[in-house]
Design goal:
With 438 residues, the protein is of the alpha+beta class. The protein has 19 helices and ten strands. It has an eight-stranded mixed sheet. Strands 9-10 form a two-stranded parallel ribbon. It starts with a strand and ends in a 13-residue tail after the last helix.
C-alpha cells in the first residue's frame, strides 16, 4: 500500500465547494497541532462531480482531545466507536419566524484514526466487530475504510489529496471496490453489503466483481444486526434519492425474510405495494430538487395499506367507519414499534392516517380547523397519492381541491355542494359501541 499525495487542483477541487463549518473544524484542529482531513463521502462526491450531503473530518486527535478544542460546542457520542459531533448554529435566510430568520443546527462529525489491529475479544460470535475504540494512524485508518473510494483524505489547508488504496483510479473507472478481502470485510460488518448496493446505485458506479461475489453467500448475516441499526440503514435507502432503484435491487437480491421488517410487508412479496412505490418515486424526484422531505409522510405512506386493508375488512363486518379505522390504527402500533419506529414518530404518522378519515367523511363545521392543523399538508399528499391509485371518491377529492383554493364566498357555495356529495356517496362516520375483536 503506497501513499500518494496529489494536488487538489488536478481534479478541480475548490474549497468554495466545501462547507465553511467543515473548513473551520479542520483549521481549528490544525491550529492546535493535530492533522485533520475531510474524508469519505465529502471528498468522494466532489471528485464525482456531485454536491456532498455532508463533510466528515478525521484526525489523529482522540475524542477527548477534540472535545477540549471545541468545548461546549461539541459532544462525544457512540459506544462501538467514539465520535465527536461539533455543533454550529447558522442563520437560515430563507426561513422565518415572526419575520426573523431562524437558526438551524449544523453538525460536523469528527472521528479519530482507527487502528487496523482488531482484538479477538471485540468480535461477536459471527465475526462482527462489536467494539472499535482502538486508535491508530492515517495509514491504518485507510485500511479500515470500507471502500477504496471512501479512503481518500483531503487537506483543505494544504489543498492536497492523500490516497493509499488507489481510490482515485477507482473513481476514474467508476467502480466500487472493497478494501481487503470482501468476504472478511462483510463478516466484520454485514451492513457493508447494503452500503455497496446503495452507493453503486446512488453514485452510478459498478460494484467490482470480487466485491459483489460474496454478497449472495453472506446476506443472511444481516439478520444478526440490531433492529435499530437496520432501521437506520433502511432510512438511508428511503432518503437516498434513489430509493425505488435500491428497493428493486434488494428485491432481486432476495434478502432473507425479516432483514427489513417494514419493507417485508410492503415490497418483498409477490406483488409490491403500488401506493408505496409511487410515494417513494415522488420522494426520489423531490430529493433531486430539495433536501426538504418528510420522513413522517414517507413512513405513513409505506404503512398505509396495512391500515387500509384492515379497515376495509372491519367495515364488511358491520362496524362504523370511525370504530373500524381507530381499531386498525391501534393494531398497527406494535408492528410499527417492532419495525423500529419510535413512539413520537408513530404518533405523528397516526395523525396523518386519522386525517384520511376526515377527508372521506368531512364535517363542515370542522373543515377550516382541519386545514390549519400541523400535519394537514402531509395528510393531503397521502390523500392525493391514494386518489392516484383510485382509492378515494374522485368527486370528494375534487371538492377538497376546489375548497383549498376557494375564497370565503366560494366556500359557502362549496358547503352546499358537499352536502349533495355526502348524500349521494358517503355515510357518516358515526360512533358505535365498541365490540371486542376476535
Amino acid at each position: 500500500m503506497t501513499k500518494k499525495t496529489i494536488a487538489a487542483n488536478k481534479y478541480n477541487i475548490d474549497n468554495s465547494q466545501i462547507s465553511a463549518d467543515a473548513l473551520y473544524v479542520v483549521e481549528k484542529l490544525q491550529e492546535h497541532g493535530y492533522d485533520a482531513y475531510i474524508v469519505g463521502g465529502g471528498i468522494r462526491d466532489l471528485l464525482l462531480g456531485k454536491q456532498p450531503k455532508d463533510f466528515d473530518i478525521v484526525t489523529r486527535a482522540t475524542p477527548e482531545a477534540i472535545r477540549k478544542v471545541f468545548r461546549r460546542n461539541s459532544i462525544i457520542i457512540g459506544r462501538r466507536f467514539k465520535l465527536v459531533h461539533v455543533f454550529f448554529d447558522n442563520v437560515n435566510p430563507n426561513k422565518f419566524v415572526n419575520n426573523r430568520p431562524i437558526l438551524e443546527r449544523h453538525i460536523i462529525e469528527v472521528s479519530t484514526y482507527r487502528s487496523n489491529k482488531v482484538h479477538k475479544h471485540t468480535l461477536s460470535e459471527h465475526g462482527r466487530i462489536m467494539l472499535d475504540n482502538n486508535y491508530g494512524n492515517q495509514k491504518e485508518d485507510a485500511i479500515r475504510r470500507d471502500f477504496t473510494i471512501n479512503a481518500l483524505y483531503y487537506d483543505p489547508v494544504a489543498e492536497k489529496i492523500i490516497d493509499y488504496q488507489n481510490g482515485l483510479k477507482d473513481i476514474e473507472n467508476r467502480c466500487i471496490k472493497v478494501i481487503g478481502k470482501a468476504r472478511t470485510r462483510y463478516i466484520e460488518d454485514p451492513v457493508r453489503m447494503l452500503r455497496a448496493i446503495r452507493l453503486s446505485i446512488k453514485l452510478g458506479l459498478d460494484i467490482d466483481k470480487e466485491s459483489l461475489k460474496p454478497i449472495e453467500e453472506l446476506k443472511h448475516l444481516l439478520l444478526n444486526e440490531s433492529k435499530g441499526r437496520m432501521y437506520e440503514e433502511m432510512l438511508k435507502i428511503l432518503l437516498s434519492g434513489y430509493s425505488v432503484e435500491c428497493i428493486n435491487a434488494l428485491i432481486k437480491l432476495n434478502l432473507p425474510h425479516n432483514t427489513f421488517s417494514l419493507l417485508d410487508k410492503v415490497f418483498f412479496k409477490s406483488q409490491p405495494d403500488q401506493l408505496a412505490l409511487n410515494i417513494l418515486a415522488k420522494t426520489d424526484q423531490r430529493l433531486k430538487e430539495t433536501p426538504d422531505v418528510s420522513l413522517v409522510f414517507i413512513l405513513s405512506g409505506l404503512l398505509w395499506n396495512n391500515i387500509y386493508n384492515d379497515y376495509m375488512e372491519l367495515l364488511t363486518k358491520g362496524d362504523s367507519a370511525m370504530e373500524s379505522f381507530y381499531e386498525s390504527v391501534a393494531t398497527q402500533k406494535e408492528y410499527a414499534y417492532h419495525c423500529g419506529i419510535a413512539k413520537n414518530m408513530f404518533s405523528s404518522i397516526s395523525d396523518i392516517w386519522l386525517m384520511q378519515l376526515e377527508f372521506e367523511y368531512p364535517n363542515i363545521k370542522k373543515i377550516d380547523r382541519l386545514l390549519g392543523t400541523p400535519r394537514f399538508r402531509q395528510a393531503w399528499h397521502l390523500y392525493t397519492s391514494r386518489h392516484e391509485i383510485g382509492q378515494v371518491d374522485p368527486k370528494l377529492y375534487q371538492w377538497w381541491s376546489s375548497y383549498m383554493e376557494a375564497n370565503d364566498d366560494e366556500r359557502i357555495t362549496l358547503h352546499e355542494e358537499l352536502k349533495r356529495i355526502l348524500q349521494i356517496g358517503n355515510k357518516p362516520a358515526t360512533k358505535k359501541k365498541r365490540r371486542t375483536r376476535t
